[in-house]
């Protein structure tokens, strides 16, 4: 009887030691090396998704951010220019021949454009951007039918403050204000690149 009890005790002790040795199954507590699957999960980085898109299918941008909108040539399929909007705000005209706004609200859109050498290979090797390139979308989703370039935008500011009206060539950089005339003091501006990609800026 004593012999049997001794065997049972030894068996229980052996089980306890076995459990304590393999209890750290995650490898961190027991000091064992992580599995190949665990290493693979650690190495995998989340893939960048880029800017979010609006319900209209355009990229949602923020004025003042470092994110660039891009233009790609339709013939060469190469990126030819990139631009950013640093601010969109109500403007006060200081030009010599100031006219009242036709649509009701003068807004200054400050842009910075960097053209790339690939622009030289384009069928039209000049990048230009003006009030004609923007559309205004009201908060209720209605797109304004009129032009954002009116008599109120011409001569609103001295030429030195505005983006070059003749545009810029390959491998150049320029900053300036685009004056627009919108029907409401706030909303969303939509601009599309030559490749059809749309970018939205809410202000």
Descriptive keywords:
single chain, 203 residues, alpha+beta, Immunoglobulin-like, 2 domains, 4-stranded mixed sheet, 4-stranded antiparallel sheet, 2 helices, 8 strands, 14% helix, globular, disordered N terminus
SSE string, helices as H and strands as E: HHEEEEEEEE
Which oligomeric state applies? single chain
* Rg over alpha carbons: 31 Å
**The CATH top-level class label of the largest domain:** Mainly Beta
Helix-and-strand structural type: alpha+beta
Poorly predicted ranges:
1-30
- Please tally the β strands and state the result: 8
Number of domains: 2
Largest sheet: 4 strands, mixed
Return the CATH topology of the largest domain. Answer: Immunoglobulin-like
CATH architecture classification name of the largest domain: Sandwich
Q: Please state the overall shape, judged from the principal axes of the Cα atoms.
A: globular
Spatial arrangement of strands, main beta sheet: 1-8-7-5
Determine the N-to-C terminus distance: 90 Å
Strand content is: 25-35%
Number of helices: 2
Binned, the helix content reads 10-25%
**Mean pLDDT across all amino acids:** 83
Could you walk me through the main structural features you see in this protein, from its secondary elements to its overall organization?
This protein has 203 residues and is α+β, with helices and mostly antiparallel strands. It has two domains: 2-43, no CATH class; 59-202, Immunoglobulin-like, CATH 2.60.40. The protein is built from two helices and eight strands; from the N terminus they run ααββββββββ. It has a four-stranded mixed beta sheet, with no helix packed on it. Mean pLDDT is 83; it is low at 1-30.
């Amino acid at each position: 009887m004593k012999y049997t009890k001794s065997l049972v005790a030894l068996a229980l002790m052996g089980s306890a030691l076995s459990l304590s040795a393999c209890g750290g199954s995650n490898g961190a507590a027991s000091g064992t090396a992580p599995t190949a699957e665990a290493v693979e999960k650690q190495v995998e980085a989340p893939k960048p998704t880029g800017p979010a898109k609006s319900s209209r299918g355009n990229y949602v941008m923020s004025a003042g951010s470092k994110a660039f909108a891009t233009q790609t040539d339709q013939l060469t399929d190469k990126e030819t220019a990139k631009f950013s909007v640093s601010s969109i705000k109500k403007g006060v005209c200081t030009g010599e021949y100031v006219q009242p706004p036709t649509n009701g609200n003068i807004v200054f859109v400050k842009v910075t454009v960097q053209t790339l050498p690939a622009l030289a290979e384009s069928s039209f090797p000049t990048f230009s951007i003006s009030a004609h390139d923007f559309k205004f979308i009201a908060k209720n989703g209605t797109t304004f039918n009129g032009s954002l370039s009116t008599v109120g935008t011409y001569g609103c500011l001295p030429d030195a403050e505005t983006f070059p009206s003749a545009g810029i060539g390959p491998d150049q950089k320029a900053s300036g204000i685009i004056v627009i005339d919108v029907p409401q003091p706030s909303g969303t501006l939509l601009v599309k690149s030559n490749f059809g990609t749309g970018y939205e800026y809410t202000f």
